[in-house]
Amino acid sequence: MNVLDRISIDPLICNGRPVIRGKRITVQNILGYLAEGDSKEDILNQYPTLESEDIDAVLRFAAAMMEAKYEIKQLA
Question: Residue 59 to residues 8, 26, 39, 51, 65: CA-CA distances in angstroms?
Answer without folding.
Answer: 14, 12, 13, 13, 10
